[in-house]
Amino acid sequence: MPFAALQDPQGKYLIEKHTIITAPSIQVLALTHQKQQSLGFKLGSSAQNPPKVTVPRNVVVVGNPVMPFMGTPPQQLDNLPGAEEEAKEVAQLFGTQAITGKVATKEAILKLLPQAQLIHFATHGIFDSVQGLESALAEGFGGAIALAPAGKDSGWLTANEILDLKLNAELAVLSACETGRGEITGDGVIGLSGSLISAGVSSVIVSLWSVPDAPTSELMKEFYQNLQHNPDKAQALRQAMLSTIKQYPSPRDWAAFTLIGEAQ
């Protein structure tokens, strides 16, 4: 449910009146809170301390890798120039380099993720158990993130593979299509977001549908600019949505993203 796009009788969107954060289940809420308390690094500060924003030391930003194949017969996914621009601008904000093109392989990225304090993927995402992905992905359910193929590796980073990682990031942003979808259970949605949280990430931003390239790039740049001045990730996402609405008024263009886990 895109709560941000719900309207009151006067036509006001919920995001125009409230800051929104999602907890898929009480268990997930307890897990993310416990993880947040254990992190030595903080993007923000606790309620007892003055607001403060700290620039993370280890940031992994991936954008527009050489795309993998899917379908029968296999077809290569479309290039995402807007995602590459987005990744480069996000990386610049944190004084690092975006990982793009053929070097953004799954092997290379997996080596970096355990030390990352902030993770940003700007690429294709997919929730698909029947549309022709290889059996390893089809059996995993919950979706996958597109990275560059290399050798015998297809380039797909699946929810199951993420579940096996040991991560310490305070925030992971999946700026890609359908990254918030998954199998609905009593414990919440089993998918990429749940896998990241279970792997050790305390806050995750994911999408609920196939997001358009240009508005998503604009929204993400606004989000990180806001985050540099306000440690509250939920408020930073809200302000980014309100800014994006001015240029892209349709909820399809800005309401897909939701913050799961901890706001600070």
Topology:
Blueprint: H1 26-38, E1 59-65, E2 69-70, E3 75-76, H2 81-93, E4 99-101, H3 106-112, E5 118-122, E6 125-126, H4 135-138, E7 144-146, E8 156-158, H5 159-163, E9 171-175, E10 182-185, E11 188-191, H6 192-199, E12 203-207, H7 213-227, H8 233-247, H9 251-254, E13 257-261
Helix pairs in contact: 2-7, 7-8
Number of helix segments? 9
Number of strands: 13
Oligomer category: single chain
Q: For the terminal residues, how far apart are their CA atoms? A: 23 Å
In percent, how much strand structure appears in the residues? Answer: 15-25%
Question: What class do helices, strands and sheet pairing give?
Answer: alpha/beta
CATH topology: Rossmann fold
**Overall outline:** globular
Low-confidence stretches: 44-51, 129-140
Strand order of the largest sheet: 4-1-5-9-12-13
Q: Cα-atom Rg, whole angstroms? A: 17 Å
Strand count, sense and closure of the main sheet? 6 strands, mixed
Can you put this structure into words, describing what you see?
The protein is 32% helix and 19% strand. It is built from 9 helices and 13 strands. The strands form 4 sheets. A 6-stranded mixed β-sheet has the order 4-1-5-9-12-13, with helices on both faces. A 3-stranded antiparallel β-sheet has the order 6-7-8.
